[in-house]
Amino acid sequence: MTPNPEVIRCEVDAQGIALLTIDYPGKTMNVIDQAFIDSLNRCIDRVAGDAAIRGAIVTSGKDAFVAGADLMAMEANLDNTADDALPVLFEKYGSLSRVYRRLETCGKPVVAAINGTAMGGGFELALACHHRVLADVPSAVVGLPEVQVGLLPGAGGTQRLPRLIGVQAAMPWLMEGKHASPAQALKAGMVHALAAPADLLATARQWLLDAPKSVQPWDEKGFKIPGGTALDPRVAPAFVVGNTMVLANTCQNLPAPLAIQSCLYEGSLLPIDKALRVETKYLMTAARGPVSRGMIRTLFVNKTKAEKGLHRPAGFEPFRCRRLGMIGAGMMGGGIALTAAQRGIDVVLLDRDQAAADKGKAYAEKALAKQVERGRMAADRRDAILARITPATDYELLRDADMVVEAVFEDRAVKAEVTKRLDAVLPETCVLASNTSALPISLLAKASARPARFIGLHFFSPADKMPLVEVIRGRDTSDATLAQALDFVAQLKKTPIVVNDARGFFTSRFIGAFIDDAIGMVAEGVNPALVDNCARFAGMPVGPLAITDELSIELSVHAGQAQQKEFPDQYKPGRSVPVLEALYAQGRLGKKVGKGFYDHDLAGEGWGKRLWPGLAALYPPQASQPSPHDLKQRILYVQALEAAKAMQEGVLLAPADGDIGAILGVGFPAYTGGPFCFIDGIGLPAFVAEADRLADRFGEHLRPCALLREMAARGQTFYGRTARPMAATAA
Fold first, then answer.
1. Is the terminal CB of the chain with fewer CB neighbours within 10 Å at N or C?
2. Predicted local confidence at residue 123, as pLDDT
3. Does 458 participate in catalysis according to the annotation?
4. Are 191 and 326 within 8 A, CB to CB?
5. Quick check: 496 and 471 in contact, CB under 8 A?
6. Both ends of the chain: CA-CA distance in Å?
7. What tens digit of pLDDT does each residue of 21-42 get?
8. Are 659 and 571 in a shared domain?
């Protein structure tokens, strides 16, 4: 067996100060795994057992202190521990907590010299030290963000922080997973001192030389938590309000915030050692549940793999865009141009006339002005970014472009005209990408003389804020083009998913299934308020009727008409079409005119929006309404079933693309981990059975596809030990 690497170096100087330097070999960041735990245990043995050592400094040999747990290793181990007995699991999940407890009770004073970012288990390590000195630089943030991936701080974070700063003061840091700047950390009492980076070790050393205590406050006789325990009248109301807020904000879909509340409540009433065991119990429960497993898998593991080139073809030199041609200066084009300019790319922003092109640059000017006004950007940086954007009308300016993205009107003829004009001027090496949400790339590429260099890049609005780009490979798109497009997306610091070509690709058909079915519910006689409220209850950020108003009913009707005209043999009107057309006929075009499914307060009188009363006359609600549970299931299942169809049809290359795209692109609830994590979390047989029940209740569009039945019969999953084999690259 290969021995674990030495993660922490221990060096003792002439004054008896042990310097423990965390420097994980072969990694850019220090992470916590079994090798880290073993190495720290050996260091504690030496510090505690050597009488010549008077104390220890814990610091990092990398730019950051410790990033936290190795979530990739944690995700991989979930299957490995699936059959472990509960006592065995309890010991495994408590291993880091125990080693930190050893550190703070080793009998020698220990100071953390936090030279950079200390998050999660990294900051919990600092909390287990008797004193904390933080480098006074903006990049040196500290925090406990575990709740953001469905977990809770499980190495003492829920117990040491409240004992340090008080239960109420600790709640926001634990429940929201926020990070603190050096000034914020000092003010909150999370660290004891700040120091310039050059003085960090000297400041830590001086504390050790000043005969400090080697006992934590909570281990001293008579210790009381600042502000009182959970039963204190000053603190107890915070739990009542906190639980109410958690339930209101999460609709009981996220177990981690409630588990953190429980750790705070129960732990404050117990001695530290028993409180740490309570914390381990809740950590084990959360970590083994489908929510944290799905969130870790998608929001960390899969996202990281995608950003590192999961589907990038091998054998091609890295590409870096120097000059981008952006065709179309509307909101989408202006957002893409701004994003590129912020990454140091020179952008030629073209439109049909100079006024339209200038308007596109004005989008960037307005966005950056807000950053400057809020103190988040210096004026000279704003000016440098804007100087990289050249609004123009002349295609000749693109003769030296490295990359071109067109974001013109969603019409094949309009895009074909632009493509022909670009073909006449672009260099042979330039990739032409079409920003489209539904038109097949292989069809659009027919207008080009070089379809191998044609690809789809579906950005999401607003493009300067939304993190996802759906990369669509056409039938003739070359490997070199795909590699170049993925490098460009990485340069923009966006997260890519790669899909094969089909009408609607993945994200548009996925969100379309949700909206189409939800509007169809209104036609069935389901109360519109119940539809939107159940969607929110299911975890969708906005109800489907409200989304449709925001996107524009007029646009939805025109898009359907365009699809029918473009693809007469393939087009099948959705269940929502009659409803949308009925509203459109009455001039209810959406929020932009103040009238859609809702009446909207465009005058700013303060009433926001309210459902249009006339909707009940058009589609009278049934006397007997479906249960909220069934509607929530229907909302989640109709989307997951569409994702499975996209996988069956070969549009999706891997479940990771579907899960990332669903959450980052169109707002599928993050607690599910995405549609494929959602299906796995339920179990294929149970998912198929429930889909059949919903289909019997609501219609055949909820019937599971052949792929799901086949996987259920074979005992397969989308992830883990029993995962169905997936394609490795786009075809």
1. N
2. 96
3. yes
4. no
5. yes
6. 39
7. 999 999 989 999 999 999 999 9
8. yes
From the list 378, 328, 320, the residue with the least C-alpha distance to 353 is: 328
375 conformational bin, left if phi > 0, alpha if psi -120 to 50, beta if neither: left
pLDDT for 504: 87
Q: Are residues 218 and 141 in the same domain?
A: yes
**Separation of alpha carbons 388 and 266, rounded Å:** 56
Residue 8 to residues 11, 61, 65, Cα–Cα distance (Å): 10, 9, 12
Token pair belonging to 547? 């989304």
| Nearest alpha carbon to residue 612 among 692, 552, 528 | 528
Q: What whole-number distance in Å separates Cα of residue 705 and Cα of residue 717?
A: 15
DSSP code of 447? G
Mean pLDDT on 648-659 = 95
Q: Give me the catalytic one of 311, 458, 558, 600.
A: 458
Amino acid occupying residue 488: F
DSSP H helices in 316-467: 331-342, 354-373, 379-387, 412-423, 441-444
Distance of CA 96 to the CA centre of its chain: 26
- In this structure, the chain runs to a length of 731
- Please tell me the total count of domains within the chain: 3
Q: Which two tokens stand for residue 404?
A: 């071109």
Cα 474 to Cα 730: distance, rounded to the nearest angstrom: 10
Cα gap 132→138, rounded to integer Å: 17
- Can you give the CATH number for the domain in which 673 is found? 1.10.1040.50
